[in-house]
Design goal:
alpha+beta; six-stranded antiparallel β-sheet; 26% helix
Length: 175
Amino acid sequence: MTGKLLAILLLGSAVLAGGAMYYLQVYGFYYEVVSKPGQDVRLLAIGADEPETIAYTDFQAIDADSSPIRYRACFETDLTPADLAGYQTANDPEPLTAPGWFECYDAIMIANALQTGQAQAFIGAKNIHFGVDRIVAVTQDGKGYVWHALNNCGEKAYDGTVVGEKCPQQPETGQ
């Protein structure tokens, strides 16, 4: 009887732990970002150091403090591809997935639109967090998507290789 009770206790603990991990990854750490009209969607003009705001509507975003690359956003804009020609394009953009409950953002659809030329990706801001750039993709019909992606410095810093002189100074941690 003790063996059966121990097996049931272990199985129950495993199910409870698995359910808690699933909840925390998909729901627990995310929060809705409060919109800051005129500041949410910005692009980096060619040759500029600071991004500038573009016209947008219907902004929705989520973020999490547990990782600098969990930010996702959706918006709409009246800007045409010709209007966006003066902004820096992103090299090899790869949209990151979002939780299924954040319905406006579909990473597979965005990736397909980028591959087929139905969307174009731009740099929204460099080093929004150390080693992380904000990428903004806009489709030809005016739908926009935002995510954070590791840049070269971030990839080096987070995989443990030497960062080098071309990267900004990494902020000190309070340890």
